[in-house]
Amino acid sequence: MKKRKSKQSFFNRYLPQLLITPGTLVIFGVLLIPILFALYMSLNKITFKGADTIYTFVGLTNFTDLVTNDPWFTQSLVTTILFTVLTVVAEIVLGIGIALVLNKQFFGRGFVRGLMILPWAMPTVVNAVMWKWIFNADFGAANALMMNMGLISENINWLGTPNMAFFSVLVANIWKETPYVVLLTIAALSTIPEGLYEAASIDGAGGWKSFWKITLPLIKPVVLILIITKTIWAFQTFDLIAIMTSGGPENATNLLSYYIHRTAFKMNRFGSAAAMSYSLSIVCFFLTLIYIKLFMGKGDDGAVDPDKKPKRQRRLAE
Q1: Has residue 26 got a pLDDT over 70?
Q2: pLDDT tens digit sequence for 61-95
Q3: E-assigned strands of the chain?
């Protein structure tokens, strides 16, 4: 009896681990094998001879060549960083502002919230084609609207000049990705007790002060997640660039992810492309650490104690 009980207890104890083991192995296989193979590619010079693929070990040469012998990589990295900073800042600021408005009670709020999600739910390819037509130099809606409003006297070549092309893809990306920030921010705002704002108003705090002292600290963990995810997604922007500008004109929109694709599949430099991919991953990793360090100080989880009474309530209780 004791042996049978011990077997049953052993089985019951390790049953969850046994059940998740197959799925865990599959996930690690799907993730780990491509990562390791990409690392192997980044350390080799890859050439094709007929149907054969020849790998020649070169060590870290592919990584050092990115800085010393590839000026397009440096330009692409700078463009990507600028694109990421502008999109993330714009999406976070606009998203939080729109979420604060949509969190108020008004007629048709549910309908407006539903409409707000549509840009983010739209496939990126459809979004890119739509904005490419909007910014068409000859018969695009952007030129027609500005012409009718008297803002311009002749059509603007939105996608044909470097600065305007960069601005165009920036607008297209912000328009699509901001609703995601709105969605998560509304979810975070719904968890804040109304009593905190009532107590703050009793203490004489206005809307702006309540935002900085109550709203922002309570949604800070969500804002951190949004900044991290939006940064990574901005660094990975590919299909928007491929459809709208193909990296041009004059490499003004040649973001790193698109340049990696072009290096691998148009220049056949798969080792260099793999090295760029790892460099991009390292940049995203260190940016994530910096975000966490800046937003979550030592012992700070971004939470505010809802049971902590404001000064006026403490005085009344005394």
Answers
A1: yes
A2: 999 999 898 889 999 999 999 999 999 999 999 99
A3: 44-49, 52-57
The fraction of the chain above a pLDDT of 90, given in percent, is 52
Exposed, middle or buried: residue 210 (CB in 10 Å: 0-12, 13-18, 19+)? middle
Q: Rounded to the nearest 5 degrees, what angle is found at the Cα of 85, between the Cα atoms of 188 and 294?
A: 60
Structural domain boundaries in the chain: 79-317
The span from the CA of 281 to the CA of 274, in Å, is 11
31, 24 in Cβ contact below 8 A? no
Q: Is the pLDDT of residue 170 over 60?
A: yes
The answer to whether 176 and 119 have CB atoms below 8 angstroms apart is yes
Given pLDDT bands bounded at 50, 70 and 90, which one contains residue 110? Answer: confident
- Of 79, 83, 102, the closest CA to residue 91 belongs to 83
Give the helix ranges, DSSP H, for 103-202.
109-121, 124-134, 141-148, 162-189, 194-202
pLDDT at 317 over 50: no
Query: Does residue 24 have a pLDDT over 90?
Result: no
| 311 vs 318: CA distance, rounded Å | 11
Backbone dihedral region of 143: left (phi > 0), alpha (psi from -120 to 50 degrees) or beta? alpha
Residue owning tokens 């909007």: 134
In one letter, which amino acid is 309? K
Other Cβ atoms within 10 Å of 287 Cβ, number: 17
Q: State whether CATH 1.10.3720.10 applies to domain 79-317.
A: yes
CB contact burial 59-98 (16+ within 10 A = b; e otherwise): eebbbebbeeebeebebbbebbbebbebbbebbbebbbeb
Q: Cα–Cα distance between 163 and 169 in angstroms, integer? A: 10
- How far, in Å, CA of 102 to CA of 91, rounded? 16
